Amino acid sequence: MFSQSEENYLKAIFHLQQESEKGVSTNxxxxxxxxxxxxxxxxxxxxxxKNLVDYQKYYGVHLTNSGELQALKVIRKHRLWxxxxxxxxxxxxxxxxxxxxxxxxxxxxxLVEELDRFLxxxxxxxxxxxxPDEKGNIPDAPTKRLIQxxxxxxxxxxxxxxxxxxxxxxxxxxxxxxxxxxxxIHIESFDESMTVKSNGKEIALSKMATDNIYIxxxxxx
Amino acid sequence: MFSQSEENYLKAIFHLQQESEKGVSTNxxxxxxxxxxxxxxxxxxxxxxKNLVDYQKYYGVHLTNSGELQALKVIRKHRLWxxxxxxxxxxxxxxxxxxxxxxxxxxxxxLVEELDRFLxxxxxxxxxxxxPDEKGNIPDAPTKRLIQxxxxxxxxxxxxxxxxxxxxxxxxxxxxxxxxxxxxIHIESFDESMTVKSNGKEIALSKMATDNIYIxxxxxx
DNA sequence: ATTAAAAATTAGCACATCCTAAATTTTTAT
DNA sequence: ATAAAAATTTAGGATGTGCTAATTTTTAAT
Lengths: 221, 221
Ligand SMILES: [Mn+2]
Ligand SMILES: [Mn+2]
Ligand SMILES: [Mn+2]
Ligand SMILES: [Mn+2]
Hints:
The structure is a homodimer. The radius of gyration of chain A is 19 Å and the shape is globular. Chain A has helices at 4-17, 26-33, 37-49, 65-87, 97-103, 109-118, 165-174, 207-210, and strands spanning 53-55, 61-63, 154-160, 181-188, 193-198, 201-205, 213-218. Chain A is built from 8 helices and 7 strands. In chain A, the strands form 2 sheets. A 5-stranded antiparallel beta sheet of chain A has the order 6-5-4-3-7. Helices cover 40% and strands 17% of the residues of chain A. By secondary structure, chain A is of the alpha+beta class. The A-B interface holds A 85, 88-91, 95, 98-99, 102-103, 106-108, 110-111, 114-115, 117-118 and B 85, 88-91, 95, 98-99, 102-103, 106-108, 110-111, 114-115, 118. The structure holds manganese (II) ion (MN) (4 copies). One manganese (II) ion is lined by residues 8, 101, 104-105 of chain A. The first copy, chain A, binds a DNA duplex through helix 3.
């Protein structure tokens, strides 16, 4: 139906437009897709012709409903494949991205449906990211971040904003993963860095790190 | 490493060159890849530049060792994925081809290795075709065909020469599959058609059909 | 051996996707 | 309000892969 390149653009636009109401800019897209602004402008015009995006010259793009559904289908496949790779094929969570980036473009309605069934209809991928259903509905995802937790409070790690392999490897090193219980021991006010306790150890985390960790707060009575 | 198109050419050349010593012709390839002769000539030149084929203008192509290894890697992936689809994802054996045609191009050494392990290192795919190992070694495959079996003799179905979905669906209909025991009841000499008995039923098979069914003869004492 | 038919190649073009450099428009700073 | 800077688009070109039509070479028929 759509080319790999088109699908990659739709996905990138989807992710970037989460961050603000404004149209996604040409440069943002170029950066995110590791290509040049001129190429982005070209592709955007093609996507607009196919009614996948609304495009106003110089003012960025928005996905149309059709474009968004398409993007969600690709994201669904990406996350299902990641789940397959980690749960069934012994991939580490920081090894799956490049392969899922290819597998997400395989065209077969039946394959997606059967894969989903085979995996037990998972709601979240190995990074805690929600897996949209075939209609494009996304399960609730945690929105609270570790950075928002107050001193003395606890939470369960539910996901990550940055899923780059460098960040995932960092998490591995400090022994924090999905489901890990984290308690805020201290907040350093001048740089918002934190000391937390998890798996029995005390760990210092930068603002950058705590802003990338989603948690579900545990009510402490 | 190589484009999808290049990989498809290598695979097609590999399969066509099984049939004779002579170079694979431009028209054969065009037919097999559903493209035009002119396009084939172009691609062949590119493959020759990359030392994947030996090419003599007007006299067809042969795979080089490197081209053959490459082709075998693609065939390995194709057959492993077919096995996955049938064994794990409930695909019917005549539904897997198009999807495997896409999946065979996914680039990841680790993925192939882990998939192979996950599937239990299968030797044959759902159509009875042998799965090459990572070095390109192919397990023995049956070479005797039903058409060669004499009246009164029996064999076990081990594979098929034609694995098009129309032939597979025909086999489904007459209830013949891998492992089915087949006995030759009668051979009609004028057109080489056969009456066989399998699963308790007597079935009439054309020469075309019996020439496409591989069997391992059972010694009758 | 000559010629007709078939097969293969070349020439010229199209489309998707990418690029650099130049031009244009918008945004920011003064 | 103007000018400089930044962002974006346009122009022009490259590459990979396909096509049709014309040409060349090989093969088959007489
Ligand atoms: Mn991708
Ligand atoms: Mn993920
Ligand atoms: Mn293929
Ligand atoms: Mn097969």
